[in-house]
Amino acid sequence: MSQQQISLPAKLINGGIAGIVGVTCVFPIDLAKTRLQNQRRGQQVYKSMMDCLVKTVRSEGYFGMYRGAAVNLTLVTPEKAIKLAANDFFRHHLAKDGKGLTVFKEMLAGCGAGMCQVIVTTPMEMLKIQLQDAGRLAAQQQKPVMMSPTKLVATNTFLSRSYNSGMVVSAPRAVSATQIAKELLQTQGIQGLYKGLGATLMRDVPFSIVYFPLFANLNHLGKPSPEESSPFYWAFLSGCLAGSTAAVAVNPCDVVKTRLQSLNKGSSEETYNGVVDCVSKIMRKEGPSAFLKGAGCRALVIAPLFGIAQVMYFVGVGEYILDNSPLSLLSA
């Protein structure tokens, strides 16, 4: 790969198509992951991933499982394109001598890719989480919970729930990602969309450091010869295994990121003042096992997502589209 001339537009197309296909397939599991991670001890609405999906369909309908999918599908194209293209770019420039990359250089390339992608990932996750978690909050509010008035925290118009005499009485009215984004920009500025940036970096940089070298080495094992590429099914399996391994490894960071980016809180749920405060409160009140919440769901989301991405990437869908585009045909 390092010896090939990089076609950046083709890599961006490959990453974009892979992201759209992958997200469409696994988004319901991602929704279950977010809701399971946001549950607190003693306030569980869902017992497992399947229980969450069944209850979601019953209370919100089939399309309730795709709550927040629109913003994800819109932004996953640049996000996945940046991640895959940046890794390819860094690998290309770290291997100028024509030799294979060392594991350290592969990890360095992955680190660069992870740092680049958070430009898009942070606001995408911020908006997606609000929409995904709305159903859990509505389900929790169906059981009236008495609260001390001092526990009630006022939030803005779109991101608040109604309280009356210390009792949670109504679910928030449906809002769109556009409304949430506008309200955040008006009240907090651009930093409102980048809340949880530190936690996102903590998750995505280590993920890329683990994923890309692991995938490259697993994929290398499937090559019939040094000159040939591995078959597409091997690229898919390598992407799945590397993705699920990296996802579970960084799941504690994903739990912290999800908690920090959740603007709406259920009755008596903790608020957090940064990464350190979040980690300490979770450890003290819920124990170490809380950091593994949603790990199975996250592995099931990431495995096919990156498996599909690598197949698109190495089959060269983007190159085919560019070669057969009207501009390419005219220039020929």
Distinctive features:
332 residues; mainly alpha; two-stranded antiparallel sheet; 1% strand; globular
Number of helices: 13
Q: Kindly state the mean pLDDT as a whole number?
A: 81
How far apart the termini lie comes to 26 Å
Calculate Rg over CA atoms. 21 Å
Alpha-beta content class: mainly alpha
- Tell me the fraction of residues in β-strands, as a range: under 5%
* Uncertain segments: 145-172
| Tertiary shape | globular
Helical content (DSSP H or I, runs of 4+)? 55-70%
Q: What is the H/E string?
A: HHHHEEHHHHHHHHH
Q: Can you list the strand order of the major beta sheet?
A: 1-2
Number of distinct beta strands: 2
Major sheet summary line: 2 strands, antiparallel
What's this entry about, in short?
The chain is 67% helix and 1% strand.
What does this structure look like?
This protein has 332 residues and is mostly helical. The protein has a domain at 8-39 and 49-119 and 206-324. It has helices at 8-38, 49-60, 69-94, 103-141, 177-188, 190-193, 197-221, 232-249, 251-261, 275-286, 295-315, 317-323, 326-331; strands at 163-164, 167-168. Strands 1-2 form a two-stranded antiparallel ribbon. A hairpin with a 2-residue loop joins strand 1 and strand 2 (167-168). The protein is globular and about 60 Å long.
